User: Fold this.
Amino acid sequence: MAKQLKPETICVQAGWTPTKGEPRVLPIYQSTTFKYDTSEQMAKLFDLEEAGYFYTRLQNPTNDAVAAKIAALEGGVAAMLTSSGQAANFYAIFNICQAGDHFVCSSAIYGGTFNLFGVTMKKLGIEVTFISSDAPEEEIVAAFRPNTKALFGETISNPSMEILDIKKFARIAHSQGVPLIVDNTFPTPINCRPFEWGADIVVHSTTKYMDGHATAVGGAIVDSGNFDWDAYADKFPGLTTPDESYHGLTYTHAFGKGAYITKATAQLMRDLGSIPSPQNSFLLNLGLETLHLRMAQHCKNAQQVAEYLEQHEKVAWVNFSGLPGNKYYGLAQKYMPKGTCGVISFGLKGGRDVSIRFMDSLQLVAIVTHVADARTCVLHPASHTHRQLSDEQLMEAGVRPDLIRLSVGIENAEDIIADIEQALNA
Assistant:
């Protein structure tokens, strides 16, 4: 039913459909474990022969209801929640890559993801090649190897605000027989649905706009169900050959379009355990109920702030794809005609030191290590989130030393601009 509904209705109604006498609001199933009457009932759950709940590390009704809502919003077949966006990114790759494998990734990604892929996963024997998302197709294709298992990018990169050409990336991935995995955190499915442009798997840091109130850290992985794993069976043995930890069950044969998420849940979550608490999923669901309202306000406010900054004499440059002169304006209009998100990056004349003084002078706008919640906040990535990177790596990740990341909230735009004005004058 949810597939025919509009996104606004899905935000409010999907995931939890109470029957007679059940709570209207999604309940918090705050239980680690679930009771059965016979040993055989439990055994069938452990063998994946029947669906059901037995231990919250694998599945929980609250978590699953919220995952179903996010899957419906993205137009996917199944989703899984994780304890953070970082966990979602790790699982999305690790579900199809193992030691000795390789994947290709846009270099313009969140600093934490850059570190996860380039440093930590390397220790697990999984290699990555970073490429510019703006590079010509043949240059990106040249980064592929026989053991390449995925292509990864962010719809809007954090914090460099580059817009991914999703169709181009999907075409490249599919020409090489691998899925395209897209981090859709910044636009959310309200403003962009990557599956409609050829992406196969979508990941989110739900900590950002989906939660929207800076209350609960979380992540999500959504599968479109469109990638044919069996067509490239030799590339993806984890999905297409028997899993000895489940009596030789083969995921693609047993679960069809649900194979990828079932494996991520039954195998990775079983062993690594990065689950969200039901309480956090409940809070995430409250955020999702107003996502469609908040995204419109974030985008409207950010447009006004970006236009103000663009004409200010003390501002050296502004990067916001809603501005007609922006390099990514055309791609933004193509993929996100309703708006992109509330995040703007800009730099001040005078460079890094002036940027820091400006931030310290803000009153309404807070300096926090966060982005994309109801309150306007600001960050200097080179000093904060990306401080472990060298100047060369900073530029490769699209982070200039003077870059200020401003996450425009849902307050009154005039009040936000007034605070920026007084800080610039200070």
